[in-house]
Each structure stands twice: as C-alpha cells, then as structure tokens.
Amino acid sequence: MIINLRLFQKKFLFLLLSLSIAFSILLMLLIGKEKKSIDDMMQQMSKDEVSIISDLAHLESDSFDYDFVIHEYISQITNSDEKKYLEMERIKEKLFENHLNMVKKNFGITTEIIEVEKIYETNKILVTQLNKILEKRKINKIAAKNILANIDSNTTKIKEKLDKLIEKSIIEQNKKTKSKIRITNQFIYSYTIIILLITLTTIIFLKKQIKIEKNLEYQALHDPNTGCKNYNAFKNTIKLLDHQKSMIFLMHINKLEKILGSLGYESGDVLIKKIADRLVSFIKNRKGTLFYLDKHNFLAICPYYDKEQLNDISKELNLLMKRSFDIDRHELLIDITMGISEYPLHGENSIELIKNSNAALEVAIKNKSSNLMIYSNEIKVKILEDLSTEMSLSRAIEQSELRIHYQPQLKISGEEHIGFEALLRWGKDGKIIPPAEFIPLAEESGLIIPIGEWVLIQACKQAKKWNNSSNKNIVVAINVSARQFLHYNFINTVNKALKLADVNPEHIELEITESLMIEDIDYIVGLLNQLHSFGIKLAIDDFGTGYSCLNYLKQLPIQKLKIDKSFISSMSNSDKDIAIVQSIINLGHTMNLTVLAEGVETREEIEILKKWGCDEVQGYFYGMPLELKNATDFLLKNQSTSEPVKVSV
Q1: Which helix (H) or strand (E) covers residue 192, if one does?
Q2: Rounded distance, CA 267 to CA 270, Å?
Q3: Cα 305–chain centre separation
Q4: Tens digit of each residue's pLDDT (9 = 90 or more) over 62-116
Q5: Angle at the Cα of 527 (from 436 to 581), degrees rounded to 5?
Q6: Taking each helix axis from N to C terminus, what angle separates 111-135 and 141-221, rounded to the nearest 10 degrees?
Q7: Is residue 423 within 8 Å of residue 435, measured between CB atoms?
Q8: Contact of 250 with 340, CB cutoff 8 Å
Q9: pLDDT value at position 3?
C-alpha cells in the first residue's frame, strides 16, 4: 500500500512538472506568434500609415497648390496666361482627385473624406464662377475677391479635415498596437500566474512528501507502541560504532506470556510501553540507546563497562523494577534478565551480537541465581555441545539409544513391593548420559514430546506384562514434564498409549511436578480430571520444592504426594527438614492422600518415616533404578518372600 502511494505521489509530481513545461512551451509559441503578428502589423502599419499620410499630405498639398494656382492666375492674368492657367488647373484637379481616390481606397470612406470631397466640389464650382468673372472685359474685382476668399476658406477647411484624418489614423494604429501588446502581456501574466500556482502546488506537495518520507523513515526505524528505535535502527547504529568498544544488552521480560494471557494483548501493550519508559530513562542516564526488539526483549547499546560496573547496573535495574506497574487496577511486578555481549569482541554486526547476547541470556535464565550473564567462550562451547547433544538426542529413539530403568517402590509397613517408577536413561557411545544433562535440553527443544510419548507407551506395555505374570497389582509410575503435560495433544497421547498396551489404567500412575500449579490452575484441574476419568492414578512429584498453594491442592484429583529426596537426606541434621517431612505426611493423611518418600538410603530413615506414618518409600536402600531384566528379577524374587530382596547393579 505504501509503495503504491509513493508511486502515485511521484507520478503526480511528474505530471505537475510536465504541465509546467507544456505551459512554458505553449506560451513561447503564443508569444512568438504574437510577436510576429505585432511585427507584421507594425510593418504593415508603417507601410499603410506612410502611404495614407503621404496621400493625405499630397492631397493637402494639392489643395494648396490648387489654391495657389488660382491666386497666381488672378494676380497675373493676361490673355496670354489664360491657357496656361487652365492647363495648370486641370493638372492640379487631376492630382487632387487621384490622391483623393487613393486616400478613399486606403483609408476608407469616412465622414471627413466625404466632407473633404464636398468642399473640393464646392471649390470647383467657385473656380468655375471665378472663371466666368475673369472672362468678362470688365472684371468685378470685388466678386472675384469674395470667391477667392471662399476658396481660401474651403482650402483651410480641407486642411483641417485632412489633419484630423492623419491624427485619427495615427491614433487608430496606436490602439491596434496597444491591443496586441496588451494581449501579449495577458499571455505573460497568465503564464506567470499558472507557473506560480504550479510552483506553489509543487512546493506544498514536496513539503507533504518530505513529511511523509520522514514519517515512513520514522516508522521504519521505530516501534509504534513504545516509540523506541527498532532492530533496523539497531543495525544502522552498529555500523556507525566504528570499532568503538561498547556493551550490547539483551533484556528479557520474564513470564510476559503468562501476564499477556491474563490481561490481554491491549493491556500488554500498555505494560510494555510503561516498561519501555522506565528503561529509556535508565539507559539514557548511562549514555546508551534503547531499542525494542520484539514482544519479550529490549536491546541497548551502552559505553564499555567492566564486570564490577555491570553488576552495579544489574542491581540498579532490579531496584528499578521493584516498583510495581499499575495496569487495569492490577499491580504487576516485572522481572528482567540480561544477556550481554561486547562489541567488537563478540561480533561486529547485529546478527552476531544479538546471537551471542541471546546465548548469554539463556544461560542467565537457566542459572536463576543472577539476572545478568556476560557472553564468553565457555558459553559458546556449551552452546555447541548442546547443539550436538540435541542433534544426537533427536536420533536417539531411531537408533535405540533410549532405555527405561525401573526403581522399586514399597509399602513401608511390611515393606511390600508395590511397583516401579519408570526413569529415562540415554546410552550413547558406550556410556550413560545423566538425565540432568539431556532432559532440560529435550524440554527446551521440544524433543520431550516424542520422547515422552515413547516412554509412556513402553512403560504401559511393561506394566501390562508384569501384571499378567505377577500375582500382585504392580503400578508403574511415569514422570510427565510440564511441557509434555501442557501439550495440546497430551490427553490423546495418554489414551493412545493405554489402548496400544491394553493395560489396566489402574496400573499406571502419572507424576506431575508441583511447579505446574503456578500455571492456569483451572486448565490444569481440567486436564487432571480427564486423566482421572480414565482410571489412571495421579501423583505430585517433588512435593515441597515448588510453589505450593494448599487452596488449590484440595481441588486436584490426586491420590499421592511424593516427598522430595532433598528433605529425606537432610533429616538427620536439619530440624527444619524434619518439620517439613512431618508436615507433608500429616497434610497428605488429612487430605486422604498416600505419601511416598523418595531417596531413602538408610534403615534409620526407614524407621523414622515408619514412626511418622509415611505410607511408601523409594530409594537406594531397596534398590537403585534397574534395567528391565533386573527389575523383572526383583519383581519375581519379591513375590515369594515377605522380606524385600535387594538387587545390586
């Protein structure tokens, strides 16, 4: 849309300039044409005017000559001069009449010409009368003198009429010339006005265009919600650093997705804007520039700081975020984690710097002990190792490298064997990779979904086999990760595993972590109710280490609490841990739940737990996680004896 608009604007500007050029050319042609017309008119006027004025002058001269001839004739009349006079008179008459005809032809028949012609005719009559007087023997000088006076008067009138004609001719030609010049000036004025209008329109348009260009440039380099510069501006700024040592901060807003899910995205935009306002001031005070990268992340370019200064910045940022944000009458506390890289040491372009800052950020998020991590070669090596491990883990199922070990679970009273917990192991290149190394990686990469499905199916099949061959109800407990549990298809996956194995759901127990309770509790309760409807047993694993909320605990359709082994192993030297274990046992019994203690390794621990009424135990005292064959042997040997048989591997 923007491209089409800009194309239209350019076409419009081109049209204006084209019109300006076209008007210029047209005016040049018109002015040229008018100039030629004026030149022709002036040239013709000169010819016509000269001709007319010449004719009028001749006519006027002829009139005087005619009058003069008459005067001459009267003053010197003799018989011998009569013929000469008559000849001269005819000549003057002819000249006068010729010039009169030429004036009539060139000038037109006007009132003045008609009057001149009448006066001339009158003079001719008077001359005839004069001739008659002069032909007599006795000349009446008084009559001749009166006639001559009339002829003189008429000649003067002819001159006046002819002078008026000359004046009128000149005035008329001047009018024509002025009219032509006025028309030409009008063309020039019109052109000037049109060009002025086009110029003003072009200037206004260009100003708007410049404003639009500036707005487009601003939009291209800024986030519309926060007003912060965006990734494009970050790239440009990196190019301008010119190897000047700088720190690149990647700041991640923790748990923002959960907040947005609760408040909605419009309120989320308000929250992000308020966070940005705080960070802008915070970074500006350190002579840096803040950028908004995406929904969860801000970037900042700051001058170089050493580690001690960076730790101070981290503390100051924590203090800054301790003030809550008031959004839709909710007070929200925001937690920010930072990954930091150094320019140009850790990269000379935006891609490398963000990648390395993000690598440091991920370590900081996992670490949880600090909200800041600086990129280093060790982090780079760890990332490469994790990538290699992830690639290998993605092929582990196909290459049959994954296996399940089973750890026995017993009733504490009578120490009767009741089941196993299925624990995932990965054997690669002849060695066992500890779960702590690959389970978190599987969680992050999403591989936990297919791996978890495989474990679920294998454990269900094994539970079916053991219960078919045993005289006991053996329950197999299966750990379910948070990501696996919250996957949209988890219920279908469980249903599929139960059907494939054709196992009694009562022989399957799913263990979920207590930390899941901080998610959407209504959604969690809904999922657990669906699983409970299948007949599956449900347990909360590692109870006491997460975010317990007893108000929600009573809503969960669970049958068992598992006490984390960290509390069991510390009972001998920690009164607080003793109190926690006792409290969990009492809580479980109050809610009619079975309580199992994990990590039991000594007889002393068994006796203490038995004394406090703990229901079930699991740990190295009875058996470590066993391979399938050893687990089966353990089951078979403990069917025929009341004392549990320990299996060493």
Answers
A1: helix 141-221
A2: 5
A3: 33
A4: 666 666 666 665 665 544 456 666 677 677 777 777 777 777 777 677 777 888 7
A5: 55
A6: 170
A7: yes
A8: yes
A9: 44
Nearest to 588 by CA among 553, 617, 619: 553
**How much is the pLDDT for 56?**
57
E-assigned strand segments in 239-359: 246-253, 289-292, 297-303, 325-327, 330-332, 336-343
- Residues facing residue 425 across a β-bridge: 403
Q: How far is the C-alpha of 482 from the C-alpha of 515, rounded, in Å?
A: 8
Please give the pLDDT value at position 66: 61
3-class secondary-structure state, position 371: coil
Beta bridge partners of 354: none
Instruction: Output the CA torsion sign for 210, 211, 215, 218.
Output: positive
Please tell me the pTM assigned to this model.
0.62
Q: What's the CA gap between 511 and 475, in Å, rounded?
A: 12
- Peptide bond between residue 344 and the one before it cis (omega within 30 degrees of 0): yes
Question: C-alpha dihedral over 506, 510, 511, 512, to 10 degrees?
Answer: -130
Give the Cα separation of 340 and 358 in Å (integer): 8
The torsion angles phi and psi of 269, rounded to 5 degrees, stand at -65, -40
* Residue ranges of E strands in 458-593: 475-479, 508-513, 537-543, 560-563
**pLDDT attached to residue 86:** 67
Can you list the pairs that 640-646 forms with residues at least 24 positions away whose Cβ atoms lie under 8 Å?
642/414, 642/416, 643/415, 644/408, 644/410, 644/415, 644/416, 644/417, 646/622
pLDDT tens per residue across span 526-555: 999 999 999 999 999 988 776 555 667 788
Residues of the chain with pLDDT under 70: 1-14, 16-17, 20, 23-24, 27-28, 30-86, 89, 107, 137, 191, 369, 518-519, 546-551, 640-649
Per-residue model confidence (pLDDT) at position 516:
78
CB 437, CB 424: distance < 8 Å: no
- The half-sphere exposure of 298 on its side-chain side, counting CA atoms within 13 A, is 29
Q: For residues 565 and 586, give the distance between their C-alpha atoms in angstroms, rounded to a whole number.
A: 17
pLDDT number for residue 81: 59
Which pLDDT belongs to residue 382? Answer: 84
Tell me the pairing of strands 417-428 and 475-479: parallel
Rounded-to-integer distance, Cα 265 and Cα 279, Å: 20
Position 648 scores a pLDDT of 41
Cβ distance 457 to 500 under 8 Å?
yes
SS3 state of residue 292: strand
Question: Buried b / exposed e across 555-574, counting CB within 10 Å, b at 16+?
Answer: ebebebbbbbbebbbebeee
- Report the chain's terminal Cα–Cα distance, integer Å: 71
